[in-house]
Design a protein that fits this description.
Elements lengths: L2 H21 L3 E3 L4 E3 L2 E3 L1 E6 L9 H10 L4 E5 L2 H4 L14 H10 L3 E7 L13 H4 L11 H20 L10 E6 L11 H16 L7 E4 L9 E6 L15 E6 L10 E2 L3 H13 L4 E8 L33 H14 L1 H6 L1 E8 L2 E7 L4 E7 L6 E5 L2 E5 L3 E5 L7 E2 L7 E8 L11 E5 L13 E3 L5 H5 L5 E10 L10 E7 L3 E6 L2 E7 L7 E7 L4 E10 L21 E6 L5 E5 L5 E5 L2 H4 L23 E8 L7 E4 L6 E5 L2 E6 L28 E2 L8 E4 L8 E8 L9 E15 L3 E5 L8 E8 L18 H9 L4 E5 L2 H4 L11 E7 L1
Parallel strand pairs: 4-5, 4-12, 5-6, 6-7, 7-8, 8-9, 9-10, 10-12
Antiparallel strand pairs: 1-2, 2-3, 11-36, 13-14, 14-15, 15-18, 16-17, 18-19, 20-39, 21-32, 22-31, 23-28, 23-31, 24-27, 24-29, 25-26, 25-28, 29-30, 32-38, 33-37, 33-39, 34-35, 34-38, 39-43, 40-42, 41-43
């Protein structure tokens, strides 16, 4: 190579290295904050789990998160969907994590990658593939070489994929933080010394992967350096990192809670959620992530539990379908924008807190340029009036006021000045009546197979369900023959079949006939099935169908919790002296079949199958497949299918699973908030602010628009318990009415969605109006022209913005002691 070429090559190398250094981002941290290229930052993040939505939904969800004031998106990585069979990987469709991360990057946001690979997340088996559980000699989440080899293999696979796509910040990508393990500190003591060794191994293994961004371990107070310990919970203002050289980080601020079959709807108010955020930043926090910002849907069989519903709405700022959950989304947006404007003083300023007593304190952040203040009132019942720096401030109970200049209150967590949206379901414009759906049906093929004792393999013992199925199906058939002759002690007696099971649902058949079904109560899986039966002289066939409804996902050694029928299974009769005589069948030869015949034949797929009937539609019939065609609902708004009238089963649209359904499982009658009202004051838990008492835990099921075709679509149902499909119908979800209740000096925005416009202003009053959305009433004073002003500004528009002032709405006849507010209800 001559000198000119060498010079050219050297220049090009320098250019390349220069370009790379511009693209690469240096992520570091100190005791105050995560730093981007040396600059401390405030981070406001939100969890969106890629497989709980669809690829087509991702850009809109991320855009709305960004518009809501977030700068980062956090997600787990779900091992069991990516490696369903050992060394066979799937990153297609909504499992395409690389595409998800690139979508975050395209939106200009950062990403937090929680690899785990244990995730909890109310996800089936905590994210572990069941084949891992079935490996000889394995012990999960401890110092076990079988497990460690598999965990390291998957973690390395994910890291290498992200590296190859140049998605770590050190490569110019969006991923600024990664997580190894998850909430292990909550249960580590149960694993003894091996648990501590395991945490150290995780840290060393993660560091060896060389990603050049920080690693975190949430809920791990003894996280080995350089791992950063972080907090999860309803409130983390009192959290202090064990290592003073790491920032105060909140990886899961629970925006609501998940739902169980048989459970009520949990809600967390916008006031309390914003209070928790403001308190966290008042007390030195600089990184906060919402769990969830969009909860989404547990498609397929991914819901864990057991008994976690298909909806994973979580009362998040973006609801299950991607709609803005107002007022939560908007109230938090205002807080986010304010906190971002205070970034420098929060991350670099000197901090001083003064205690005013009665749970009231003032925190001042000061730099050479500015000061910002938080006035916190953690009293649960009493408003506080204090004098601070010569000015009097009134702070409602259980709230925080933020004064970015230490003079003027710009935001208070208890004062919601944004729209409240009342969501409504509208009939499908293409199919207005349930009876317009024409159904076909076919029975699950059991008469000539399982109910005749035909299976795939046999063994002289009762098998645990995960071991037998590898979680390929919710369903496992147990079949055995019992000979009872006239010499048998129980012959001629009243006989009871008694089955001890750790499964979630049990269906029992004797000699081809159903004798009953039973399921566990919410939160448990162990129960005893007992039913009187009639037996024949000679051979009798006992068939038991065990059904899982999501595998356990949390707790020490949760992976070892058994599922299925482990027995004993006995026939019980009475002797001559009324003593109990039993015949234990547990060690008999049991024949097994995994799954349903319809699952094997893929009856849920759109391809034609023979054997469907068009006449004499049966209802309330167990083990039945139903199929119908329908047209996609008009418009662009989210679609749901109402499965009221059905029992329990699984649903598919155009061959894609929309999850398990169980509308007959009702929530308890008692325990809901009166009139759906909830006092935001006081510590929140998932037993506070409940609604939906006495109603189906879930009646409506999300059908993503991307699952639908423009012309004909196919809905397939497998009905396990028995129901009536005639009531099934499709609807869209939209904003029915938009309410505002904003203080003077604020700006109120009202908006519809899906192209709908504001058709009417049902109520408007600027003064001291009383009541809540849908039940506003005029107070003692108001501006006379407010209604006409708002009608002119809003009717016929998709959205409108109103300056809440006398200049815009007119003078009021209110006295000087009245705080004037604008109350509006607009109809979309």
């Amino acid at each position: 190579m001559d000198s000119s070429k060498r010079a050219f090559f050297s220049v090009m190398c320098l250019v390349f290295l220069s370009c790379f250094s511009v693209l690469a981002t240096n992520i570091s941290y100190d005791g105050r904050a995560i730093k981007i290229n040396g600059q401390r930052k405030v981070f406001l993040s939100g969890s969106i789990h890629y497989p709980r939505s669809t690829q087509e939904m991702w850009p809109d969800l991320i855009r709305k998160a960004k518009e809501g004031g977030l700068d980062s998106i956090e997600t787990y990585v779900f091992w069991n969907i990516h490696e369903p069979i050992r060394r066979q990987y799937d990153f297609t469709g909504n499992k395409d994590i690389i595409r998800f991360l690139k979508t975050i990057q395209d939106a200009g946001l950062y990403a937090i990658l929680r690899i785990g690979p244990y995730v909890c997340a109310e996800w089936n088996y905590g994210g572990f593939p069941v084949w891992l559980h079935n490996m000889p000699g394995v012990e999960l989440r401890t110092m076990n070489s079988v497990y460690q080899n598999e965990m390291q293999n998957f973690t390395t696979l994910i890291v290498d994929m992200v590296k190859q796509a140049n998605l770590f910040a050190s490569q110019g990508g969006p991923v600024i933080i990664a997580q190894i393990e998850n909430e292990y500190g909550n249960i580590m003591s149960s694993y003894g010394d091996a648990g501590k060794q395991y945490v150290n191994w995780c840290a060393n293994m993660a560091e060896s992967l060389g990603i050049d961004v920080p690693w975190i371990m949430c809920q791990q107070s003894d996280a080995p350096p350089p791992m950063i310990n972080t907090c999860n919970g309803w409130y983390c203002d009192n959290f202090t990192p064990t290592n003073p050289n790491t920032p105060k980080m909140w990886t899961e601020n629970w925006t609501g809670w998940f739902k169980n079959w048989g459970g009520k709807d949990p809600h967390r108010t916008a006031e309390d959620l914003s209070f928790s955020v403001a308190r966290f930043f008042q007390t030195g926090g600089t990184f906060q992530n919402y769990y969830m910002y969009h909860g989404g849907t547990n498609f397929g069989r991914v819901a864990g539990g057991p008994y976690i519903t298909t909806t994973y709405d979580y009362d998040a700022p973006l609801d299950e379908f991607g709609n803005l959950n107002q007022p939560k989304w908007g109230h938090l947006k205002e807080l986010h924008l304010l906190l971002k404007s205070m970034e420098k003083v929060l991350t670099c300023g000197d901090v001083n807190t003064t205690d005013f007593g009665n749970s009231v304190n003032v925190t001042v952040y000061t730099t050479s340029e500015t000061s910002s203040c938080f006035i916190g009132n953690a009293n649960e019942t009493t408003d506080a009036t204090i004098t601070f720096q010569g000015t009097q401030y009134t702070v409602p109970a259980w709230s925080v006021s933020i004064l970015p200049d230490c003079k003027t209150e710009v935001y208070n967590t208890a004062k919601v000045n944004v729209q409240t949206s009342i969501m409504v379901k509208k009939p499908n414009g293409a199919e207005d009546e349930p009876r317009s759906l024409r159904w076909e049906w076919r029975p699950e093929d059991v008469r000539d197979t399982t109910l005749h004792g035909k299976g795939a393999f046999a063994i002289n013992q009762l098998l645990e369900q995960k071991q037998a199925t590898d979680d390929a199906s919710d369903y496992l058939w147990y079949m055995t023959n019992v000979n009872i002759d006239k010499q048998d002690p129980i012959f001629g007696q009243d006989i009871t079949l008694r089955v001890n099971t750790t499964g979630h649902v049990l269906h029992a058949f004797v000699n081809g006939k159903s004798i009953g079904s039973q399921w566990a109560k919410i939160g448990g899986s162990n129960f005893v099935f007992e039913q009187n039966i009639k037996v024949n002289s000679g051979k009798n066939l006992i068939v038991l169908l065990s059904v899982t409804v999501g595998l356990k996902n949390y707790g020490a050694f949760y992976d070892t919790a058994p599922d299925g029928i482990l027995g004993p299974v006995v026939l019980v009769g009475k002797g001559k002296m009324d003593e109990e005589i039993s015949k234990d069948l547990s060690s008999y030869k049991w024949t097994y079949k995994v799954g349903l015949h319809g699952e094997e034949r893929h009856l849920y797929e759109v391809q034609p199958h023979k054997g469907w009937h068009t006449k004499d539609l049966p209802t309330n019939r167990m083990m039945t497949w139903y199929k119908t065609s329908f047209k996609a609902p008009l418009g662009t708004e989210p679609v749901v299918v109402d499965l009221q009238g059905l029992g329990k089963g699984h649903a598919w649209v155009n061959g894609q699973s929309i999850g398990r359904y169980w509308p007959t499982f009702l929530a308890d009658e008692d325990g809901c908030s009166i009139d759906s009202k909830c006092d935001y004051r006081g510590a929140y838990s998932n037993t506070k602010c409940l609604t939906n008492c006495g109603q189906p835990s879930q009646r409506y099921y999300h059908v993503p628009r991307s699952f639908l075709h423009d012309d004909e679509n196919t809905l397939v149902l497998f009905e396990e318990l028995g129901g009536n499909p005639s009531f099934v119908n499709f609807q869209t979800i939209t904003v029915g009415s938009a309410c505002g209740n904003a203080e003077q000096g604020k700006t109120l925005e009202l908006s519809c969605q899906g192209g709908r416009t504001i058709s009417q202003i049902r109520f408007a009053s600027f003064g001291d109006a009383q009541g809540t959305c849908g039940a506003f009433e005029k107070g003692t004073c108001e501006a006379s022209n407010a209604l006409s002003v708002i009608e002119k500004a809003c009717v016929g528009k998709e959205s409108c913005t109103i300056d809440v002032s006398e200049a815009t709405l007119g003078s009021t006849n209110c006295g000087s002691g009245i705080t004037k507010r604008l109350a509006v209800e607009a109809i979309c």
